[in-house]
Here is the input.
Amino acid sequence: MRASFDRNLIKKYDRPGPRYTSYPPATEFTQEVGEDQYRQKLIESNERKTPLSLYFHIPFCESGCYYCGCNIIISHRKGIERPYLDRVYREMDMISDLLESSRPVVQLHWGGGTPNYLEPDEIEEFMSEIRRRFRFSEDAEVSIEIDPRYATDEQLKVIRNVGFNRISMGLQDLDEKVQRAINRIQPYELMHRTMERLRGLGFESINIDLIYGLPYQSARSFEKTVEKVIELDPDRVAVYSFAYVPWVKPIQKHIDPKTLPDPEEKLSILEMVIDKFQNAGYVYIGMDHFAKPGDELALAQQKGELWRNFQGYTTRKGVELIGIGATSIGMLYDSYFQNFKTLREYNSAVDSGHLPVFRGVVLGDDDLTRREVIMDIMCNLGVSFSRIEALFGIDFREYFSEELENLRELEEDGLIEVKEDSIRILPPGRLLIRNVAMVFDAYLKTKKELKFSRTI
Here is the structure.
């Protein structure tokens, strides 16, 4: 089902809202939930015998991109990663001691920062240390983010040889004026050469990230970038909206707000992006993701099996995510936990023999029910009432009577269709899917001010 772009509806419903990489959102995490609960929940998770997903955060970058909103450490000096890796291994020891060794790892992701900040021998060592503590399934999805500006042939060969089969890289924009404004010079020739290297090495899936709303961008200028990306033929594309928040991310103070596209132009960019990728044969998965029709994301959505976690959309629903490293977030079945964000606090916790968790949230029955509904809306474009009723022993229409009433305006505006036993997202509602999900969010009812990115 193609998404359709209705500018009037988008303007009407454009408001702050969660991205629902979790429910409850991370804004509900509390420092009252910490190490003791995490340890207990890890032990309890063994009773479910669910497969595992591992996320490792590598916070180092060789240079700073002015749009960046990640938790990173910028350094040209190699060697600062060594103490960090040693502490990550110690955190792995603490976690693996609590988990049944028989539970298979079906998904692994290295994010950052820039994971290819690590030298080839460090990449080999790191993966060896992970495999020494965890057992991988034969069909495990093993992915890594790279910065192609710093990726050497040797690094890419090692990344493939140690078992990575999926790779993601940022491009953002190919326009040289935009690149200078965001401090990221990355010519098309480099991207083309990197794509050829990755295909030659046999990676199963290649993802390219773009950002719209950057300095000096326009629909006309960014269209050239989109066309070039389509030529590169990645399996997946993510097109993120730039959020200018220099009061939160000081590095963004390098960007002159007068150079940013105005809201009307930004909408025109988004409309162009969606049309271009859909016309090129990509499936609009939702939010900011596109995938080829045969990609696992598209197939999982067709089957109603897509899910979301803190890395975005995932095909591995039902696995339990273990976050390792500074700022990482873990997602167990009924709880979420986040590690300390700063290296100083992370190091101190690990050095003293503690799991480096500083906040989290434990889900109640209502949270679990609403999470299932919200994730179905966000990922699978609709909700089956009978499926939710079977899972949680409720009468959907009775349990969500207030929410169904609040959906009337969205239905009248053609965003959704409410049937006797289901809710279905219609083409105009594809772009406003967060607005539909927000109706079922119990936490928003208590908020006087919504501190989230805007839904468009």
